[in-house]
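User: Structure please.
Assistant: Input sequence and predicted structure:
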Amino acid sequence: MPPIIEVHDLSKTYASGTSALSGVTLDIREGEILALLGPNGAGKTTFISILCGLVTPTGGVVRVGGHDIVRDYRAARALIGLVPQEIAVEPFETVMNTLRFSRGLFGRKPDDAHLEKVLKSLTLWDKRDARLNELSGGMKRRVLIGKALSHGPRVLFLDEPTAGVDVNLRREMWAVVRELRAAGVTIILTTHYLEEAEEMADRIGIIDKGRLLLMQDTAKLMHEFGRKRLTVELAEPLAELPGALAGQGLTLSPDGRHVSYDYDTRADRSGIARLLAGFADAGIGVRDLETEQSSLEEVFLRLVEEGA
């Protein structure tokens, strides 16, 4: 099956001379959730704006569903829904009429049955006749998703979809995104919440200074680039580590009851067996062992530093 989005050598340089994107090439699979990560000014919003037809690229080719976004703009844009960062809605309009208007902008015939399905999936059906100024910020954000889905797109762009919402609502939004993916919608999201990308995305792309540093399956990324930490709980506290254990990258906790050891999961040997043998030789009793996988935040920071 061909990718739903094909991006080849995409670049964007503004009149000021600022290069926002440089040589970005990637394919986006139909039905996947792709998370784009990067610091502020990395080029994420420019990338989304180009694919959605809001910004004209300087160079490169982009196809959505086989349609070139420049030469066949209308057909390409009809396949896309966009949920922007900013909550910009008509405050005195009702929820249902807001979705009806958005659907009409794409030349779609009225279809309240489809809009009912969209609103129910977003838990907004009971608010269909409410004015937008009566809704909470979280509900307004869900209305933005409803607007983006009103014309039945195959691709949904979410630009910082959970920015400024509380933890409970964020998890509700995650559930909505998963349901959309289950229905066959391809989802591309940008986020500053690395937990969000790690929890939801099938693949993760990391952008910095307009360059795509990496595109990888989430699980594989964590396996290949992640590190693990072994924490050893000691039977008796130590004032300091014995000299025989020095130089092995060990850290003794302030209370002397735990020793931590970071190791690379890609290495042929973790060094754990040698470490535990060292404890035994030094007569140090071990009460318990615990390992912890490095977070996506640590992986992200390492990649950005390496690509700098």
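The longest strand covers residues 19-28.
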